[in-house]
Amino acid sequence: MMADIKGIDVSYHNGTIDWRKVKQSVDFAIIRAGYGRSKADKRFIYNITEARKAGLETGVYWFIYAKDAGQAVENAKKCEECIRDYRDKITMRVWADWEYASDKRNPQTKKSRTEIVRAFCGYMKSKGYETGIYTNADYLKNKFGSLGEYPLWLARYSSGRESYSPLMRQYTSKGRVPGISGDVDLDIYYGKWPPHTKPRSTIKMGSRGADVIYLQQRLTAKGYGVGAIDGIFGIRTLEAVKAYQAENGLKVDGIVGPETWKSLG
Fold first, then answer.
1. How far apart are CA 265 and CA 256, in angstroms?
2. Any idea what DSSP says for residue 38?
3. Closest CA to 106 of 118, 98, 94, 95
4. What is the 3-state secondary structure (H, E, C) of 86-140?
5. d(CA 60, CA 85)
């Protein structure tokens, strides 16, 4: 049986994070990109960049403040603006976050609240992002209509039988992780791991992006040093690929295609 896949979710409230230390304890991080119609999280760029460099899988969440579906789309547009340059770093979805604070600012009915969350997710999906919804059992039971078409990130801190089937669960807000000062939210992921859903592209010297990061992570895990895990297929990564290919009965060409990906796992 696979061990629990553990993660955290963070925002600028968690201060300056030492992501290399964090990686020793967890597998992923869900990072706040911002909130409302105009506010980017002050540490989003640092957090997602450094978390990926450290080798974590990453997703993002956006705290929604909206009075109607139109403003929800404005939230989504701001979210997309903030994250578009980091698209290749987002491997664990864009999560719509509507909480009690959202309702205090803009009181809603069950119908309007559901329409707002759907509008946000719909816009992000139209831009090619995988989406999901962060919420708790009270909202699912009493404050939202049907949202079964979206994966669920469930905030539930009590133990006991699960009434829902979340893709991910936030199980405490008072966790402790080396590399973070103070309390931090802790999560468990129940989905396929690693969480990539699309076939990996063929990559070679000069390639950049999420697939290169994953390649560097796999090579490092197997004992082939690549230098920095930075998403750039440079000379150190090329040398590591060729060494791996030579020692595993693969064509030694420095190109990572289907056969090399299959071998790397």
1. 12
2. T
3. 98
4. HHHHCCCCEEEECCHHHHHHCCCCHHHHHHHHHHHHHHHHHCCCCEEEEEEHHHH
5. 13
Cβ proximity of 60 and 32 under 8 Å: yes
Token pair listed for 213: 């990061």
Q: Copy the structure tokens of residue 207.
A: 């390639």
pTM of the entire structure? 0.75
Average pLDDT of span 59-70: 97
Please, is 156 exposed, middle or buried when counting C-beta atoms within 10 Å of its C-beta (0-12, 13-18, 19+)? middle
Torsion angle of the four alpha carbons 72, 28, 91, 260, in this order, in degrees rounded to the nearest 10? 180
Token reading at 10: 């963070």
pLDDT tens digit sequence for 194-250: 786 566 789 999 998 778 887 887 898 788 999 888 889 999 999 999 999 999 999
